[in-house]
Amino acid sequence: MTWKQVFTSSVGKKLVMGFTGIFLILFLIVHVGLNACIWANDGGEMFNKGAHFMGANVVPRILEIGLFAGLILHIIQGLMLEASNRSKRSVKYAVSYGNDGSKWYSRSMGLLGTIILLFLILHLSNFWLPNRANQGFLLGEEINLYEKMKVEFSELWVVIVYVLGCISLGYHLAHGFQSAFKTMGVHNKKYHAMISSVGYGFSIIVPLAFALMPISFYLGWVN
Amino acid sequence: MEHYNMNLTLKVWRQKSSNEQGYFETYQVRDISSEMSFLEMFDVLNEQLIKENKEPIAFDHDCREGICGMCSMYINGKPHGPWHANTTCQLHMRAFKDGDTIVVEPWRAKAFPVIKDLVVDRTAFDRIIQAGGYISVNTGNAVDGNAIPIEKDKADAAFAAAMCIGCGACVAACKNSSAMLFLSAKVSHLSLLPQGDPERKSRVVNMVAQMDKEGFGACTNTGACEATCPKEISISNIARLNREYLTSSLTAEK
Ligand code: SF4
Ligand code: FES
Question: Rounded to whole angstroms, how far apart are CA atoms B37 and B46?
Fold first, then answer.
């Protein structure tokens, strides 16, 4: 079977979702770790150092290309799967509890993913875009991202959108984390219990940490 | 359990043929015994319709003892009705009480088109089996069954997967109309056993290709299938199928 056959089959498409999903999860770990530096409460010194490294060093910049490739693949494949899966039942059930044994968020990955995508557009235009524009072709002065966070997160609506984005991320991960491992073929009982508890832990802790960042600025917990 | 009689309102899906629009028709049935099976209640209703010179309701059934997988009714929003790990034919009227309204629909999936009323065409499953759900055996003397040693755990897991009766409830319950629980049961059943090993790689690849061709959706691991399966086929079989598929495609010659 050719690679094309593999990746256009229903199982292959899921493999793409799973592998890119795990890759994005790894990125979240780096991202949350770096951003947690804001709580050092040193006026953003530590955080800005980290941000400078990520922007100036060549390794993270190359990885960044991979990150966007993975993200775009995950989004396009996800949306296409959602559309195709929805088209497989033309007449809807009049009464339907058939989904009883499944969690609502596992059935709503398309919706949750779309909310995260909308949030990402705001998020990237808040920070990534102006920052890269300055570091790159415009060669302006490097943006003080810590100060930028202070400004952005003084707006209540921005904080609310970020928190909603993080909640969607949490539920998206609650299903996605363990589902990715199942898709990659892990079915041994001894791993399964471990993966689902790590997955649930991850999907609570990481989005919570992210959500606390705008809240911290808004409520003046950091200065 | 005490016996009782009940009067019920039934809303049943009627559809003349696959290319005609279906609709719900409401019927009243009286004095239904709590000891009847759900299909016997339908027999009573059909007798009544015949007496009234009306077209009886077409529905699938064969063994009526939970082993053939023919009965396929979506009852009050659930495949095979409200009981856990149960087929429609083994659902008994004691699950309901006097005055209840029961909505009965066919399995709904593009890959299972309605033939008539509650009867759907499930030959897609047959074609998936034909694509690889078998083992090839040379003719000649049958080998003694016990000649091949099989680990007890594996034999048990294979047997649990082989319990699948091909009823299609997993497809009916799945939001994606995916047939992965069915397929994974078939693939697991054979690949866990030494007899299934020689054709292991081509089996999973060909069966998945056929499943996609039949127009089932892709699995997103929601777990609705496992919860509704009358034979309690475990969703871990799906992960096993994914592993089989991944290794088969990575190690394929071309
Ligand atoms: S896996 Fe269960 S629900 Fe699906 S066809 Fe087999 S017995 Fe029916
Ligand atoms: S009629 Fe055979 S399983 Fe129900």
Answer: 14
